[in-house]
Amino acid sequence: QVQLVESGGGLVQAGGSLRLSCAASGSFFSIYTMAWYRQAPGNQRELVAAITRGGFTNYADFVKGRFTISRDNAKNMVSLQMNSLKPEDTAVYCCNAEISTTRWGGRNDYWGQGTQVTVSS
Hints:
This protein is an all-beta fold. The protein has strands at residues 3-7, 10-13, 18-25, 30-39, 46-51, 57-59, 67-72, 77-82, 91-100, 107-111, 115-120.
């Protein structure tokens, strides 16, 4: 069974920084794209940033220049460095990974439980 476990959320003042991490565990063959999504109360879930296994990255416009996504394939981990945080970044941040559990199986989406990020003004 595959699990994604996030860590690193918390409360920070505007302009501050936080680093989120997500580790995949369990039995699987390969991890493809890994990403961070967020959802604020009353809003739909939105993509924050994504990174392919080869290291290609994609960012939402609202975090470009402030957030950096990275991954460690050997440790099955993805991280999100968040700088210059704004109150509007307050949300539950969830880790997502595209994973195949067997060599010949298809890819499925897995999600972490989410971690709260609160930015005070």
